[in-house]
Automatic annotation (TrEMBL):
Organism: Ramlibacter lithotrophicus
Lineage of the species this protein comes from: Bacteria, Pseudomonadati, Pseudomonadota, Betaproteobacteria, Burkholderiales
Keyword Acetylation: no
InterPro entries from the UniProt entry: Amidase, Amidase_CS, Amidase_dom, AS_sf, GatA
EC number: 6.3.5.7
Domain Amidase: 25-467
Source superkingdom: Bacteria
HAMAP family: GatA
GO BP term (any one): translation
Matches recorded under Pfam families: Amidase
MF terms (GO), sorted A to Z: ATP binding; glutaminyl-tRNA synthase (glutamine-hydrolyzing) activity; transferase activity
Protein name (Swiss-Prot/TrEMBL): Glutamyl-tRNA(Gln) amidotransferase subunit A
PANTHER family named among the record's database cross-references: GLUTAMYL-TRNA(GLN) AMIDOTRANSFERASE SUBUNIT A (PTHR11895:SF151), TRANSAMIDASE (PTHR11895)
Length: 495
């Protein structure tokens, strides 16, 4: 019999429903793994009592004959979602020890669907970063090579799922933070259409881009989670769409015969590493064998998405982060003179370097005299980037390309070079700016045996199609089920 951590969400849910295993037994197993694999830095908070209490409640719901889709399945949440039962830090010292009086909508919906929470996962501070190195708490390591970064900002989520410390996790994606770490850690992740999932209780970074999504091993598991996470939340998030929740798993098995896959020429330029390119090309050939056709398309403003994103996201961040002033919650400097001094010291102490950099950039591009030249201009180009996609979707059904230009880099390699980090976001930013759904699916291995993710981008509301396209690939490849060495390196405790 397979060890509990080898089972997918779908398998765990089925065995729990059939009462072959109990939620408490499963929770204990993953808590033990989280403990024995602490060196990977996936978790920021665990609380066995809280998790086991939730698991016992799930077992009671199962015993009472309830049929919620994720009943008893353990998950862990990126620490950007606020939770009542665990501290919520957003990876920042600013929120050290903060306890939210409420649960984020996404967290509440997953709990309603029966999920048990294993705790909170490491991330870049306020989700700003691509390597998890901006976490104010600890380093997260890639389970495929612990000397490398796991990606970010949902780095802890990717590590936890890849190393089998949780069957699935939540993540958030503003400019690639679900897709890029999923790609770097060899797992599957999907960012839905902007507005599908409520942002209520998601610590805000750039509100016009922030979106929640699931990270798991398979497309099927992502579909199960996403179905529970999405749906309107009109009273709490004014940008949540008035579109009813869907069963995103409904068309997983549809044939790909006749599917037109758009391949953007700008995603295959000089910046793309040859090892990544080889894995992407192989996946595209696999799709041809599955009956799809490849269509060359153009997304001519791909390169512009970097300056556009790095104007808009910091602009919104500078506004969103003004709430951390030491008054109502979060860190407050111990010693200060007047009120202005209190603000200054609090923010100087509480924020890390990258967050300060973004606040400064954002404040600058919004300032009088520069607003038109930077912020307004960026908004106009953002619109054009979105239009480019609509043009492209006239000749294709989904778009495919790399999620990132290289495999995961070494810890520290780009830590002192913010621009190098920004440039590596090139393939995920266009879809983010357009608000389109996107995912990363394991499609091979590159240099150093590191995973490569294929990015699939759909048109608005095309999540079910994306998951179908990903699922079909996973039926004919096994990249998503390979287990990284670090998943087993640490001693294992069976419940
Ligand atoms: N790497 C990008 C950034 O640093 C994206 C982060 C994200 O999607 N949260 O802003």
């Amino acid at each position: 019999m397979a060890a509990l951590h080898e089972l997918t969400v779908a398998e765990l849910a089925a065995q729990l429903r059939a009462r072959e295993i109990s939620a408490v037994e499963v929770a204990r197993h993953f808590l033990a793994r989280a403990k024995s694999h602490q060196s990977l830095g996936a978790y920021l908070a665990v609380d066995e009592e809280v998790t086991l209490a939730q698991a016992r409640a799930a077992d009671q719901r199962i015993a009472a004959g309830e049929a919620a889709p994720l009943l008893g399945v353990p998950l862990a949440h990126k620490d950007i979602f606020v939770t009542r039962d665990f501290p919520s830090t957003a990876g920042s010292k600013m929120l050290d020890g903060y306890r939210s009086p409420f649960d984020a909508t996404v967290v509440a919906r997953l709990a309603q669907a029966g999920a048990v929470s294993l705790g909170k996962l490491n991330c870049d501070e306020f989700a700003m970063g691509s390597s998890n190195e901006n976490s104010a708490y600890r380093m997260a390591r890639n389970p495929w090579d612990p000397q490398r970064i796991p990606g970010g900002s949902s780095g802890g989520s990717a590590v936890a799922v890849a190393a089998r410390l949780a069957p699935a996790a939540t993540g958030t994606d503003t400019g690639g933070s679900i897709r890029q770490p999923a790609s770097f850690c060899g797992i599957t992740g999907i960012k839905p259409t902007y507005g599908r999932a409520s942002r209520y209780g998601m610590v805000a970074f750039a509100s016009s881009l922030d979106q929640a999504g699931p990270m798991a091993r398979t497309a099927e598991d992502c579909a199960l989670l996403l179905s529970a996470m999405c749906g309107p939340d009109p009273d709490r998030d004014s940008t949540s769409l008035d579109v009813p929740a869907e069963d995103f798993a409904r068309s997983l098995n549809e044939s790909l015969e006749g599917l037109r896959i758009g391949v953007p020429r700008e995603f295959f330029g000089a910046g793309l590493a040859p090892d990544v390119r080889a894995a992407i090309d192989a996946a595209l050939q696999e799709y041809r064998r599955l009956g799809a056709s490849l269509v060359e398309i153009s997304l001519p403003r791909t390169e512009l998405s970097i300056p556009v994103y790095y104007i808009i996201a910091p602009a919104e961040a500078s506004s969103n982060l003004s709430r951390y002033d030491g008054v109502k919650f979060g860190h407050r400097a111990k010693q200060y003179g007047d009120l202005g001094d209190m603000y200054q010291k609090t923010r100087a102490e509480g924020f890390g370097d990258e967050v300060k950099r973004r606040i400064m950039v954002g404040t600058y591009v919004l300032s009088h005299g520069y607003y038109d030249a930077y912020y307004l201009q960026a908004q106009k180009i953002r619109r054009m980037i979105a239009d480019d996609f609509q043009q492209a979707f006239k000749s294709c059904d989904v778009i495919a390309g790399p999620a990132a230009p290289t495999v995961a880099w070494k810890l520290g390699e780009k830590a002192d070079d913010p621009v190098a980090n920004y440039l590596a976001d090139i393939y995920t930013l266009p879809g983010s700016l357009a608000g389109l759904p996107g995912m990363s699916v394991p499609c091979g291995f590159g240099d150093g045996g590191m995973p490569v993710g294929l990015q699939l981008i759909g048109n608005y509301f095309g999540e079910a199609k994306l998951l179908n396209v990903a699922h079909r690939l996973q039926q004919v490849t096994d990249f998503h089920s390979r287990i990284p060495v670090a998943a087993d390196a640490a001693p294992e405790v069976r419940s």
